[in-house]
Task: structure prediction
Amino acid sequence: MSYKKSVFIGRKSFLASCFQERYASNATTFLDARDPELPIKLKNADVVVNFAFDPKLSKLKYDQRLDIDAHLASLLKGTATRYVTFSTRCVYSADASTPAIETETGGEVGVYGTNKRIIENRLIDTLGDRLLILRLSNIVGYEFGRARRTFMAMMQDSLREESRVYFNQPLSTRKDFLPAPLFADALDRFVQADVCGVYNLGSGIPLPCGDVIASLLEKHSGADVVLADRQLPAEEFWLSMEKSSHIIEYLPTSADILLYIKTLGERLLND
Result:
């Protein structure tokens, strides 16, 4: 699609890089969230998509001064501009007995989940029906060297540098993974569809982490899996994609996800 009247915030984020890699040929406009001229630059935008998030809010108690979404929403208050932002599966409880659905409340996981829920509620109060929140599962892509403290990023770093991966939960722990190219495609569909509200965005499949690790290591002869002596309780989750499936064109199978993760492992050998 053409992004002529769409504005994107947060070029350096991992999610933004996933989107740009997939849609590099499209005319996209990226701006800095703290640009003093941002109110003027956003004036004619139909859609603002925010990838930016202050990492301090992953660990510290909520502070509006760190809330980039609140800042952007204040600039768009009273306009007709649609606002798209990203939340997390951590606003749901860590319970994979059933898929998490968008109407669930309570049970947030950690400070990060609590802060994201606060951010969501403040955005809803400010922007109402001009807001689209996408609650993400684990978006997985090539992350070697990005120093992100995520499941896949840390495993890629240690696999490349030490020929081993570390895991502190049972290998049977199930989580929801979505390949980065499919995240980018889904975001494109959501922007085109002109929808608002709260939607999950994942694969909708609870994959055992042991299978994910095995796929990443498949081409790495002699690579080890190091399990923590004191493992944490299994933190499982998967997202219901029933609501979102009416918007996006394709949902992956388990085989699709594991094949993609295998290609990430192969890329670590070749880059």
About this structure: Helices lie at 14-22, 38-41, 68-76, 110-127, 151-162, 180-193, 209-217, 254-270. DSSP finds eight helices and twelve strands in the chain. The chain has a mean pLDDT of 90. The domain at 6-141+177-204+238-251 is CATH 3.40.50.720 (Rossmann fold).
